[in-house]
Specification:
Chain lengths: 115, 112
């Protein structure tokens, strides 16, 4: 089954304790992206990757890191989480077409609470 | 960079009525505009999209229209049903084809 998976789905942590949220897709998509979703703000892009070893900042990258060592995986790293990073996080992937990336397939989401 | 506004933020309609959600974008070079539906506790899922060389697209009860001159696009849902209740997001893709900017979302409630 074609899908995007994320782990963990729920996470409670404390300020400053490093954490990683994994994202994996089995559709051989070139493009992967991380979003955070907050009430009234919609989906805001954190980082994206156009292919292996190619990553770039989105609209809200502060406090986050990513890596793309393999095509299928795109982990999101919070080196020192703070309470303002409490949010719902979505990973997404999409194929690359001649016009750019189009249909995005979202993972199930990771709900993070930073105390 | 691109900025996408979306209105209304909430919308309640009676079952069977039509619903219209409107988005405006700022970058005239944006060329692809998808709409996503997010049910409570679920992930966003694409329901319809439109490219800048097309003015209208329909898929059963759902249609999207695009006015490039005015830089706005709209989602139209006809004969609404309770299962249409969800949050709807519009988005615009930048000219380089790399990034989407999403609107803040519209919570649609279809009342039986």
């Amino acid at each position: 089954e074609a899908q995007v998976t994320q782990n963990p789905r729920y996470l409670i942590t404390v300020t400053g304790k490093k954490l990683t949220v994994t994202c994996s897709q089995n559709m051989n998509h070139e493009y992967m992206s991380w979003y955070r979703q907050d009430p009234g703000l919609g989906l805001r892009q954190i980082y994206y990757s156009m292919n292996v070893e190619v990553t770039d900042k989105g609209d809200v990258p502060e406090g986050y890191k990513v890596s793309r060592k393999e095509k299928r995986n795109f982990p999101l790293i919070l080196e020192s989480p703070s309470p303002n990073q409490t949010s719902l996080y979505f990973c997404a992937s999409s194929p690359w077409t001649s016009g750019g990336q189009e249909t995005q397939y979202f993972g199930p989401g990771t709900r993070l609470l930073v105390l | 960079g691109e900025n996408v506004e979306q209105h209304p933020s909430t919308l309640s309609v009676q079952e069977g009525d039509s619903a219209v959600i409107k988005c405006t974008y700022s970058d005239s070079a944006s060329n692809y505009f998808p709409w996503y539906k997010q049910e409570l506790g679920k992930r966003p899922q694409l329901i319809i999209d439109i490219r800048s060389n097309v003015g209208e697209k329909k898929d059963q009860r759902i249609a999207v229209t695009l006015n490039k001159t005015a830089k706005h696009f709209s989602l139209h849902i006809t004969e609404t049903q309770p299962e249409d209740s969800a949050v709807y997001f519009c988005a615009a893709r930048d000219n380089y084809g790399q990034n989407f900017v999403f609107g803040p979302g519209t919570r649609l409630s279809v009342l039986p």
